[in-house]
């Protein structure tokens, strides 16, 4: 299947939008930007969803919508755990400094 960008740009059936898309794709190709077709994009999204399902606990059994909801909750949970660990580390560090002052 030939894309509309492979046709002559002087074609009378070319719309303004098609010309802008072709110019953009040409600039991207010239700059080294990789232009992907829909199949490649869908494949990449599928790979990312599979990776996300492996990361999120119980993600393998979830549909995409529910997976995204669980991912958001999981991120919040991890942020809370990180904050708690920082507080705990600061507390322990403070106790160590206090002991050093007291000679212990």
Task: Provide a descriptive summary of the structure in words.
Residues 1-21 have a biased composition (Basic and acidic residues). InterPro entries: IBH1-like. Residues 1-29 are annotated as: Disordered. This is BHLH domain-containing protein. Keywords: Transcription, Transcription regulation. The protein has 104 residues and is mostly helical. It folds into two domains: 9-55, no CATH class; 60-104. The chain is built from three helices and no strands. It has helices spanning 16-30, 38-55, 64-102. The longest helix has 39 residues, at 64-102. The chain is elongated and about 80 Å long. The termini are far apart.
How many individual helices?
3
The SSE order reads HHH
Helical content band: 55-70%
Q: Quick one: how many beta strands?
A: 0
Keywords: Transcription, Transcription regulation
InterPro entries: IBH1-like (IPR044660)
Biased composition (Basic and acidic residues): 1-21
Protein name: BHLH domain-containing protein
Concise summary:
With 104 residues, this protein is mainly α.
Give the helix/strand layout:
Layout: H1 16-30, H2 38-55, H3 64-102
GO biological process, one term: regulation of DNA-templated transcription
Region (Disordered): 1-29
Protein name: BHLH domain-containing protein
List the main descriptive attributes of the protein structure presented here:
mainly alpha; disordered N terminus; BHLH domain-containing protein; IBH1-like; 104 residues; transcription; transcription regulation
């Amino acid at each position: 299947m030939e894309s509309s960008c492979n046709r002559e740009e002087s074609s009378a059936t070319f719309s303004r939008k098609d010309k802008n898309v072709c110019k953009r794709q040409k600039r991207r190709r010239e700059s080294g930007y990789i232009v992907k077709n829909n199949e490649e994009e869908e494949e990449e999204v599928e790979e990312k969803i599979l990776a996300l399902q492996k990361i999120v606990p119980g993600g393998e059994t979830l549909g995409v919508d529910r997976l995204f909801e669980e991912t958001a909750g999981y991120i919040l949970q991890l942020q809370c755990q990180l904050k708690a660990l920082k507080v705990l580390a600061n507390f322990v560090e403070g106790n160590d400094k206090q002991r050093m002052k007291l000679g212990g």
